[in-house]
Amino acid sequence: MSGQGPSVDKGMNTILVCQESYACGGSDEAAFECDECGSLQCVRCELELHRQERMRNHDRVRIAPGHVPFCDSCKGDNSGCGVNGGRLRAVVRCQGCKINLCLDCQKRTHSGVNKRKHPVTPYPPPGQVQDSSLEAGDGGEMEALKAKLEKVCSFLLVDAKEEMQLKDEEDFVSRLDCRPEELLKVVSIFGNTGEGKSHTLNHTFFLGREVFQTSPTQESCTVGVWAAMDPIHRVVVIDTEGLLGAGSNQGQRTRLLLKVLAVSDLIIYRTHADRLHDDLFKFLGDASDAYLKHFTRELKATTARCGLDVPLSTLGPAVIIFHETVHTKLLGSDNPSESAERLLQERFRKLGLFPEAFSSIQYRGTRTYNPPTDFSGLLRSLEQQLDNNTTRSPRSANVIYRALQALSERFSGDIPEEHLASNSFFPDEYFTCSSICLSCGSGCVNSMNHLKEEVDHEAKHRCRYTAQYDNRIYTCKACYEGGKEVIVIPKTTASSDSPWFGLATYAWSGYVIECPNCGVIYRSRQYWYGNQDPVDTVVRTEIQHIWPGSDGFLKDNNNAAQRLLDGVNYISQSVSELSVKPAKAVTSWLTDQIAPAYWKPNSLILKCSKCSEVFQDNDTKHHCRACGEGFCDGCSTKNRPVPERGWGLAPVRVCDACSLNRGVSEALEEEEGGTLSRRVGEAVQNTLGAVVTATYIPLGLMKDAARPAYWVPDQDIRCCCECQRDFSAPRLSIHHCRACGQGVCDDCSPERRAVPSRGWDHPVRVCNTCHQKPGDLYSCYSL
């Protein structure tokens, strides 16, 4: 090392030499001070000594200009020389004894006659020399680094509800202030709340500048996931919310940590406890299991689905456990023959945990006798891991963002409260589908949101049969023996039968079971007596799970009654459509024949006398009982007695204008007989209308009784499932899609398709959504 500069007093110790003499002979200039070796070391001795496994994790500090070593005499001594039994910095170096001494130890050990004459070299005050060195040489470099860091600020990446807070990957690149093609690594930090995670990142990567917010209050200052770019090491630094904190959505917040872990290349687990707690090992062990079980497969799928140029590693990140103590020794310091990593693995084994997902687990400890905390050892370990690209190679910011976004979309949603009390940090329920089989209660084992990728529900165990859901399916026995598994379903008619002939056959021979390969394999009433059950002869059964929202197994396809009603309705509608105009003409003529003389004939009424709306074929014309003019329904809503026209004292229909005119002259000419005949005619029409209406009541009852099991009942249908129009509107009839069974209007179901799995082998009404589906509708069932 060079001299300390002009501010150093003459006669002061300006050079520190290696105290180990392991590789250099004790003549080289010291470059490191090892806290656990208790000596100053040159570059060669430091390298050779700490290659040994038992000394690899020693806490070493690079010597800066003006460095003052600790006192060699009081180090490890409990005599009280140091504050609270700690060590003091040396003030002199005895050239005769070749040791560094603090003021108290010099007086205690060199007060005798012999040692009093030993030559000593004083050390400069640490603060004075460090300040002068910064002014002399390092000030310019430090100012340049600070200027770079002034521009860095953190931003919220994911909130506590697992929602991404950036618009897209371009926004992510812009916030990081990096080039889109620049290859980066990700460093994240974990630990319990209040352990100083944000403080650690600020002092390790940003020279103590508060890039990540810290707070002295009891409330956590980090909620969600925050990110920033380290411009010196060119890495993405991620700060996370602490474990064991107070707040809602604890399950979602914990799950968010594992998503961050999955996209990280290096994670720091920060602990300030004097002894390593079991929570640390349990967190890492559970995270490893969840990563291998749920995230490895999803990362592979994300690589293929997103077309990423850089494959996402299926091996997890490297872990550095940063352990800061005050009153206790660091792990392994009292047993130099055992490495800290080996002691960690032994601790994992005792707890029954195996963190196989992580590429490495390294221990880095520091003992803080007096603040501030020394983060230099942690930074050296981070730099070594970041230079290692064996298992985790750098990738662009676009890839990092898309991977985190894909994991957020897959593993999202509310977590039931009963799963929050789990003993595991990352229970399977945080990442798997929440659907439960209605029959046996088994849970789905697929990942969350798997239905978006058209992946069906799966369960670990076989289901049991329940009569409530009748969760049996039939497979053709002949095909099964031939190596195929073909599902068959009972239905009304065979696919080769015409609709009316099929109904006649059904009435005589019962339902059929038809296999696409073998044809009709069973008829329920094929013989007069002795018909066997199909399970005993031609089919075999499988018990299937019943998942919420599924269609069931569509076994009840006996739609003969509905087929008959459809035919009757078709014939009646055809007759009605062909006879509507003649019926209107006859009704109009009959009304004119029995109308009073003052009524305007129907043939002359072309539009409403008040609003002038032109009457259409289906519109009804109303006559005002007072003036006799023709009006629409909306302009003749009033009722009042019209005794002067012979209608007695009972209220009858009048137009709006006549309802206000109470002074109609009684001298008006009227024909009592015509009024009487009209009253008789209205009574007859009302009676006939009641009879016609009454015929629709049993038809509605028949329709409900004939409804197939999968059809939504008419009383439960409020609007069209396609256009959402309300069926309470006039002239809007309810129809059923033969594929899905939902209620649909006529305009949204113009197409016709066969639905064999529902028992409709000929083209029938389907909604637009089902019509657009490729292949046979509802013809495939998974076993």
TrEMBL record:
Q: Which is a GO BP term held by this UniProt record? A: lipid droplet formation
A single Gene Ontology MF term assigned here is: phosphatidylinositol-3-phosphate binding
Which superkingdom heads the taxonomic lineage of this protein's source? Eukaryota
**Domain named B box-type: residues:** 13-63
Q: Which UniProt keywords apply?
A: Metal-binding, Zinc, Zinc-finger
Segments forming domain FYVE-type: 608-663, 714-775
Concerning Pfam families, the annotation shows:
FYVE
Question: Mind telling me which GO cellular component terms the entry cites?
Answer: lipid droplet
Instruction: Please identify the protein, giving its name as recorded.
Output: Zinc finger FYVE-type containing 1
The protein's organism comes out as: Oncorhynchus kisutch
